[in-house]
Each structure stands twice: as structure tokens, then as C-alpha cells.
Amino acid sequence: MIFEVFSSAWSTMIWSTFALAIVLGAVVNKTNFCTMGAVSDWVNMGDKGRIRAWLFAIAIALLGVTILESLGTINTDNAFPPYRSANLIWAENILGGFLFGIGMTYGSGCGNKTMIRIGGGNIKSIMVGLIIGVIAYFMINPLPGSDQTLMSLLFLDWIRPLSVSLEAGSQDLGTLIAGAENAASGRLWVGLILATLILIFVWKSSDFRSSLDNILGGLVVGLIVIGAWYVTSTIQLGYESDFDGDVNVSLREYLDPTTSQWDMSEAVHENWESAKPDMSSGSPQSLTFINPAGQALGYTASGFDKAKLTFGVALIFGVILGSFLWSLLTKSFRIEWFASVGDFGNHLVGGILMGFGGVLAMGCTIGQGITGVSTLAVGSMLSLVFIVFGSALTMKIQYYKLVYEEEASFFGALSSSLVDMKLLPSMMRKLEKV
Length: 434
Hints:
Layout: E1 2-3, H1 6-31, H2 35-45, H3 49-70, E2 87-88, H4 90-106, H5 111-119, H6 123-140, H7 150-159, E3 164-165, H8 173-178, H9 183-203, H10 206-209, H11 212-234, E4 236-241, E5 245-250, H12 251-255, H13 266-269, H14 290-301, H15 311-329, H16 341-361, H17 367-372, H18 378-404, H19 410-420
Parallel strand pairs: 1-4
Antiparallel strand pairs: 2-3, 4-5
Helix pairs in contact: 1-5, 1-11, 1-15, 2-3, 2-18, 3-9, 3-11, 4-16, 4-18, 5-6, 5-15, 6-14, 6-16, 14-15, 18-19
């Protein structure tokens, strides 16, 4: 998609994202596609239906990105966030994923589910969403009256030195297996094989095959991840250069502050020169919900400054609207408040942990678990594993505490949960298995 004017290109990207997000919000609300719910079903009841729906979404997204990238239609190398960075921030992926997994359990859902619940009238999720947004915003942007962010104050000095610089130049499995010179073919084959294996696992379940909601939820989420990658990768600005003839540049290239070679006419720039979005906003990107929550808060606080109207803002507002419309259509919209002081405390802690964990891990259950994995990034896979681990462990501890009440100390519930997960020897069990 080539445009002659920046405002037209930007508006098309924003409105396309908004439309995709509305569909996402409605379908996720309708099908109850939920990562925390999927983990809960698996841990507490042994039901893998929604886990398979999540894996189905991963397989669809991975297959689409693999094929489109091999055709040159999209390029996730310059994505935002930089999933394929040569700097593997493994400690941040692990710690952030673990914190996020705990947080989404206390907060009754991940970032996406929080927006879905807001659209359905859940006041508790509004609080969680605001907390996520504030923390995500100040993890990246300076605190008032300071040049320090929460990230630089609390984490950067001790956790970033633990990162590993990869000689291959990229952390995706295709490059790591096949080498930098054969990265394209490596990504193609690894992506196709991995997606096929996941699809086989998902579709061998007769229960999954008979569940329209699980099929629809996984399919639509996967397709929308692909759609967002496509929209943000293919919108370009075209102009006629006196020296090079017809030239097309991506939104990222146009917004790059270090670039000065574009001899575009004033008609291309229009009146955006003093208020252009930053370069990352024009990068190829897809679904993720933690940093966009911060962007949406910043956009609102700025008085709706058009320079702050980004992909992430359109995504957040679109998902909430889509969920709201579906709730009205099905007459399921209802106001839900905190059941108790303890319920308030749980959601408060959940929002805080998701805010910190989501930025550290560089994404959420969808941002890393589907979008990031679709790029074959090792860091995304690490984040995914520890999100699931953090959530599953928290659920097991909560269950032991519920069953044994005062008899169960935290450490007794923790050790017994880790024994159940086969991470500690049985001799360390403190409570009888439930």
C-alpha cells in the first residue's frame, strides 16, 4: 500500500488496526479465549481445550508470518519491540515472564483479557488496566521531574549486564540453526515444521475439533496477528526523486530522525513536521497489550495529541470497543465490582506485577506468546514458558491454601506445588496432594 501523503498513510494504518482490534475484541469476548483461563483449566481440571486454542493461534500466526516473510511481504527484523534482537535479554524474559504469570493470575486475566473485561463492564479491570498503563508508561518514559525511568531506577543496572550478545546477529531459531547466511531458508523450514507439529498436536484432540469456540478463537486471534503484521509492514510513502526516480519508503524509514535524504515535497509532509510520531511507532508490529496500555494512557493524558495516536493506542481502544459491542449485542454487559477488600488487593497486586513483568519480558501472553513466537525469537519462547510457569505455580499455591486454610504455610504450599510439578523431589512435600 503506497501513499503520497504521510497523514493518509498514518490514518490508514491506525484505522486498519482499529478495525482489526474491534473484531478481536468481539471474538475473544464471544469465545472466551483467555490464556489465564486456559492455564487454569489445565492445572485445576486437566482440560486442555483452551490451551489447544492458544496453541492453534500460535500455529496460525507462525505459519502466516513464515510464509509472508519468505515472500518478502513482511519483515519482522525491524519490528517493535525488537523480538529478533541480537542481544538476548534472557534474564528479563525469565523474570518478566514469571512476574507477569503471577500477576495475570491475581488480576483475573492477562493484558488482552483485561481490555475485554473492561469492554464488558468490569470495574475491577479498569483499575488493573490503569495500573498496567501507568507502570508501563513510566518503565519507558521519565518520571515527573526526573530523567530516570522505572526501568533505569529498578532494573537496568543489574539485569541488563546479564544479557548475551549473539554472534549470529539474530535470536530467531532459523538464524541460530542455519546461520546468518542461510537465515531466510532456516526461518522458512523451522517455521513450517514447528507450525505443522503444533497443528498436529492441536487437531488430534476430538474435544478440540468439536469445540467451535476454541477453533474460532484460535483461528481469529492468529489471523489478526498476521493481519497486523501485514498492515504495519506494507504501508509506504511514495514520491518522485529528482535523482532516483520513483522511491518508496516505509513509515519507519520516514520517521527515522537520523535520516535526511528524503527530498519529498511539502505535500507529502503536510503539517506533521512538528508533531511526528517516534520511529518505533512506524515499525512493523502486531498484537501486544502492555506497552500499548502505557501508550493509550499517554495519548489520553496529552489531550489526544495526534503524534501520540499510535498502533498500540488504536489496538487498546479497538479491543475495548469490540468487546463492548459484543456485550451489548448479547446482553451480557454488566457492572462488576470488587467482592471484598482481599479481592481489591489481589487485583492491585496483579496490575502491578503485570505492568513490571510485561515490560521486562517485552510482552504479554499474546505479545510474546503469539506475536513474538511468530518471529521464532528465543526470548519470546522463554517469556512464554515462564508466564505459564508463574501462572500455574500461583494457581497451585492458591489451591493448597484454599484446601488446607490455616494449616498450610506459604512455603508448605510452595514446596508441595513444586513437587506436583516435578521440580522438587517428593521427599520435600509438606502437604498431602490434593
